[in-house]
Amino acid sequence: MGGRSFTVEPLPASFGARVSGVRLASLSDTDLAQVREAWFEFGLLIFPDQGLNRDEQVALARRFGPLVFDLLEISNTWPDGSVRPADDAVVRAFETNKYWHQDNTYQPVQALGAVFSALTVPPQGGETAFADLAAAWDALAPAEQRRLEGLTALHSVRLNPQNARKGEAGPEARLTDLQGGTAARRRPLLKIHPVTGRKCLAVGRHAYALEGWPQDSARALLDQLTEQACQPPRVWAHRWTAGDAVLWDNIRLAHRALPWDMSQPRVMWQSRIAGDPATEGSEAVDAELAG
Ligand SMILES: [Fe+2]
To answer: Could you tell me the distance, in angstroms and rounded to a whole number, from the CA of residue 101 to the centre of ligand 1?
Structure first.
């Protein structure tokens, strides 16, 4: 397969690798192709010590495809760097990021992935955890796989009673409302990965109902599947160091932010890579508030 010019050390999990010996801000076309290949082979690539600036990060992300957005700062600080109070709307909006989810599944097109980098990290906590939903599918019993193959979930932030109860939605959700993406989206529980062809279990926080199912049983099954899926060896929590950059596969992996002492600043930049509407698109459905 033509040797790589950089070093890839697999993580002790069913996915993920740490990559060294490569400078993301100045990747050759050959290295870019090899990074892209490793991205889908491992699902998560961690690049320590990159220190990308805004322009470098956006330029890098664009080399992987069209973007959902160039660069979103995910931060609990004011522009002057001081920390926002705990009851600040932006801080409370981090609430939904604490749960396992995949980005943009409640929108017309699920994201393909993201470049995510750390500028300021708290001394403890604030890890980003990832879970391997391809390995989760493979771990299901064949009879369970056959049962799930026929099921379709509805995804929404606005209609999800778990969000509505709290009256809260993450920064992404607020963006969604601005973009008018308020219908529920149909997504089968079995997602075929558009690049690798692997079967992935499409669950997580944004799936709030199953078509044709009573809400209580749907909620119970969705919670059980997510809980079962996101267990070792299918999980990895990345402990950030300022200057790290990661590249993740948002179809194979779910992710969530682990808590930290919110009096400590945490500043991250995300550049989100768009999915292909032909494979990551979804149908809108007129759905009522469930629950
Ligand atoms: Fe997310």
So the answer is: 6
Residues bordering ligand 1, an ion, CB closer than 5 Å: 103
Tokens standing for residue 183? 């219908």
Distance, CA 2 to ligand 1 centroid (Å)? 34
pLDDT tens-digit readout, 22-73: 999 999 999 999 999 999 999 999 999 999 999 999 999 999 999 999 999 9
66's tokens: 């069209």
Against a cut of 0.85, is the pTM above it? yes
DSSP code, position 17: E
DSSP string computed for 219-244: HHHHHHHHHHHS-TTSEEEE---TT-
- 7-275 classified as CATH 3.60.130.10: yes
CA of 164 to the centre of ligand 1 (A): 18
Distance 103 CA to ligand 1 centre (A): 5
Q: Separation of 165 CA from ligand 1 center, angstroms?
A: 20
CB 43 within 8 A of CB 134: yes
